[in-house]
UniProtKB/TrEMBL annotation:
Keywords, ordered alphabetically: Hydrolase
Pfam families (alphabetical): Lipase_GDSL_2
Name of the protein in its database record: Hydrolase
InterPro entries: Ester_Hydrolysis_Enzymes, SGNH_hydro, SGNH_hydro_sf
Organism: Mesorhizobium waimense
MF terms (GO), sorted A to Z: hydrolase activity, acting on ester bonds
SGNH hydrolase-type esterase domain boundaries: 6-198
Length: 216
């Protein structure tokens, strides 16, 4: 059985657009659950989504535990052995409190990739396959979040290119979530149940394209 870790924020956790962080879609509705159903019984899909998670930043308001880099190492060791790690982060890095350009958000993803390679939690102590997913661009109207995400919608539209350049330079797999889904207009930065279905299905095809057989 092959294993894949899905490491992300609220759009991996399955937070319902326009709702609070405790209100989420069910296990079979979230994109990791869709991925699990599509890949079949020969795959073990691990969900590690946390609302508010950043790439590498302690959040001065929501807490230091939102730092994706801090938790990544124990997470990798907890779930070893891993054949594939999928990372979809970056939206929360665009909050005005961090004041980061898209290029630095991509650099944060690069730090996570470095940690994965250094820890080598793949079979026999190797580096697992790594896929970075650019989150779908935010809507221009992010409702009551507009002060927190001031300037973020425009930046979010630049993340895919920055992530693709990073993936090419580090020889990683890349997927642009914005090529198949859009954020919900309910709050402007979360994806709805249909988008989870589309994303999970598309990512299953991307995982297959790596060249693995589902029966091995």
């Amino acid at each position: 059985m092959r294993s894949v870790l899905c490491y992300g924020d609220s759009n991996t956790h399955g937070q319902i657009p326009g709702k609070g962080p405790l209100e989420r879609y069910g296990p079979d509705e979230r994109w990791p659950g869709i991925l699990r159903a599509q890949l079949g019984a020969d795959w073990y899909v691990i969900e590690e989504g946390l609302s508010g998670r950043t790439t590498v930043h302690d959040d001065p308001i929501e807490g230091a535990h939102k730092n994706g880099r801090t938790y990544l190492r124990p997470c990798l060791q907890s779930h070893t052995t891993l054949d594939l790690v999928i990372i979809m982060l970056g939206t929360n890095d665009l909050k005005i409190r961090f004041n980061k350009p898209p290029s630095e958000v991509a650099m944060g993803i690069g730090c996570l990739v470095y940690d994965i390679k250094e820890l080598a939690p793949g079979p026999g102590g190797t580096t697992p396959e790594i896929m970075i997913v650019a989150p779908p661009p935010m809507q221009d109207d992010v409702k009551e979040w507009k002060s927190i995400f001031a300037g973020a919608p425009a930046k979010s539209r630049l993340l895919a290119l920055e992530y693709e350049v990073l993936a090419d330079s580090l020889e990683l797999h890349f997927f642009d979530a914005g090529s198949v889904v859009s954020c919900s207009e309910a709050d402007g930065f979360h994806i709805d149940a249909e988008a989870h279905r589309l994303l999970g299905t598309a990512l299953a095809r991307a995982v297959d394209a790596i060249g693995w057989s589902r029966s091995t």
